[in-house]
């Protein structure tokens, strides 16, 4: 513990972070690779006890209903919700965005329900409607970032404390509320680590 405090005190520009990736489903291995590429430790999270050792957590894409059921079955739902409400950094990509939303436009079931956003599931259609593009998001990178959309949701409404980070064709696809970050798209499926670096910086701060 003392060693960790010293590293935070004297080497703020380069802190070795321990980032968890919920490992129930989805592209968690790809997220882990990006975190390791940036020189930080990636943890495959499947048990509640692991939450206590992390500096932040990524909720990857997949099937939100299935992931939600697994969070309940493993007993992780309530401990994770309480940690996020207390300021624990979290990033939800695609299904992870759905898990964090307080309201789902076309579904009566909310999961963690911690972020003040209303999300429409499968807003971009089916698997065959998947697409990719490049967009400049100044807060994240000075260069355009590749965005990959796969059966993606988007945000229809945001609360007063939510900062919209990116819109695409009039739809909100990236946003942040204090310690919570969400993206409709999948940065982990590209070779660009800008969003992962942004989230690591959130965890450091």
TrEMBL record:
Gene3D superfamilies: 3.40.50.880. Keywords: Glutamine amidotransferase, Hydrolase, Lyase, Pyridoxal phosphate. It comes from the Bacteria. Transmembrane segments: none annotated. Its EC number is 4.3.3.6, 3.5.1.2. InterPro entries: Class_I_gatase-like, PdxT/SNO, PdxT/SNO_CS. GO terms for molecular function: glutaminase activity; pyridoxal 5'-phosphate synthase (glutamine hydrolysing) activity. GO terms for biological process: L-glutamine catabolic process; pyridoxal phosphate biosynthetic process; pyridoxine metabolic process. One of its GO terms (cellular component) is glutaminase complex. SUPFAM superfamilies: Class I glutamine amidotransferase-like. L-glutamine binds at residues 62-64, 121, 150-151. Pathway: Cofactor biosynthesis; pyridoxal 5'-phosphate biosynthesis. In the presence of PdxS, forms a dodecamer of heterodimers. Only shows activity in the heterodimer. Belongs to the glutaminase PdxT/SNO family. Catalyzes the hydrolysis of glutamine to glutamate and ammonia as part of the biosynthesis of pyridoxal 5'-phosphate. The resulting ammonia molecule is channeled to the active site of PdxS. This is Pyridoxal 5'-phosphate synthase subunit PdxT. It comes from Odoribacter laneus YIT 12061.
């Amino acid at each position: 513990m003392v060693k960790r405090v010293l590293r935070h005190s004297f080497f703020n520009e380069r802190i070795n972070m321990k980032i968890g990736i919920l490992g129930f489903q989805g592209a968690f291995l790809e997220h882990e690779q990006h975190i390791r590429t940036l020189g930080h430790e990636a943890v495959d999270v499947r048990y509640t006890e692991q939450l206590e050792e992390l500096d932040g957590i990524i909720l990857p894409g997949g099937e939100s209903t299935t992931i939600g059921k697994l969070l309940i079955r493993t007993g992780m739902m309530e401990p994770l919700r309480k940690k996020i409400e207390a300021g624990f950094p979290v990033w939800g990509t695609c299904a992870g965005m759905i898990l964090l939303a307080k309201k789902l436009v076309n579904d009566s079931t909310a999961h963690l329900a911690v972020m003040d956003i209303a999300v429409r599931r499968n807003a971009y259609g089916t698997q065959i409607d998947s697409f990719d593009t490049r967009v400049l998001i100044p807060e994240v990178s000075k260069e355009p970032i590749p965005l990959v959309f796969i059966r993606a949701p988007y945000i229809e409404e945001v609360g007063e404390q939510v900062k919209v980070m990116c819109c695409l064709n009039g739809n909100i696809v990236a946003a942040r509320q204090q310690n919570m970050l969400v993206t409709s798209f999948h940065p982990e499926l590209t070779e660009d680590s800008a969003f992962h670096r942004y989230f690591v910086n959130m965890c450091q701060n």
